[in-house]
Amino acid sequence: MHFKHYTNEDKGMRNVKVGLVQMSCTANKQENLDKAIFKVREAAEKGAQIVCLQELFTSLYFCDVEDYDNFALAESIPGPSTDALSDVAKELGVVIIASLFEKRTEGLYHNTTAILDADGSYLGKYRKMHIPDDPAFYEKFYFTPGDLGYKVFQTKFGKIGVLICWDQWYPEASRITALMGAEILFYPTAIGWATDQDEETNKDQYNAWQTIQRSHAVANGVPVVSVNRVGFEQDGAMKFWGGSFVANGQGKLLYLASHDKEETEVIELDLNQADYFRKHWPFLRDRRIETYAPITKRFIDED
Q: pLDDT tens digits for 138-189?
């Protein structure tokens, strides 16, 4: 397959600067929100136009236990956190991607990401579709699966698609979001290692996590921005592995964060690359959509 290198001459003028905030959290909700706002300001000072915060950034990752008291962390969306972030977005002229614990009504809760445009307007929300239930990740106790479908948001700086953490493992989710016109896929996430695991297992798990997301970039020809938390939580039993990254539409790593440090980084993306990559590697064009009906089955067998 012929594929010439993407050169400066091929580049268009649709560049956007994305900011990633990788941070640790405490048990104090207001403290975490204030810290996130400080880091959004830091990203904006570096030129960021779209800033993505990590999954559930206003709290510790509370899903390690099934505790009814943790429902008190939830809030309405729009609500207090989006109001505060809306003011910041308007002041700085940046888009903010904010992952929050949503209380929809009495007894109904979601893992939700709100999108605030650069003028401070609330563009809408995406509710996490895939909900895990693993040791130390008991999310089905707290979160109802999303019912808004996959979503894209037309922001001042481009059309973005937002998915959340466990959605990362599903090519169907990224494909549908890309087919809806997403120019960048964002993944706020919270994932880590059990501290009693061996280093080889840690490495294998992280590599699998990064590889599947970079494959979404390649399959769809669009950049992927994945933002994870860092720090020890769960009384030291969990080390959130950081490793936030940005990959272009060919899967090339443009930025890779550390596993143990807070980082605020800004990366410039060329949105015109999607057309270039899709012309040279026409994976979207060559899809045999008439053969894909069986994908809606749980498993393909005779029963």
A: 999 999 999 999 999 999 999 999 999 999 999 999 999 999 999 999 999 9
* Phi, then psi, of 97 in degrees rounded to 5: -105, 115
Q: Return the pLDDT at 303.
A: 72
**Per-residue pLDDT band at 2 (split at 50, 70, 90):** low
**pLDDT over 60 at 12, yes or no:** no
CB 224 within 8 A of CB 215: no
Sequential DSSP letters for 25-69: --S-HHHHHHHHHHHHHHHHHTT-SEEEEPTTTTS--GGGS--GG
The answer to whether residues 195 and 213 touch, using CB atoms and an 8 Å cutoff, is: no
Q: Which two tokens stand for residue 295?
A: 């994908």
Kindly list the distances between the CA atom of residue 297 and the CA atoms of 9, 93, 260, 288, 290, in Å, as whole numbers in the listed order: 46, 44, 40, 18, 15
pLDDT digits (tens, 9 = 90+) for 189-246: 999 999 999 999 999 999 999 999 999 999 999 999 999 999 999 999 999 999 999 9
Find the helix packing angle between 171-179 and 199-220, rounded to 10°.
30
Residue with token string 């979404």: 216
Q: Are strands 15-22 and 50-53 parallel, antiparallel or unpaired?
A: parallel
Kindly state the tokens that stand for 209.
């996590």
The catalytic residues are: 55, 128, 165
Which strand ranges, in their side-by-side order, compose the sheet holding 238-241?
192-194, 238-241, 230-233
Residue 192 CB neighbours (<10 A): 26
Tell me which DSSP letter residue 90 carries. Answer: H
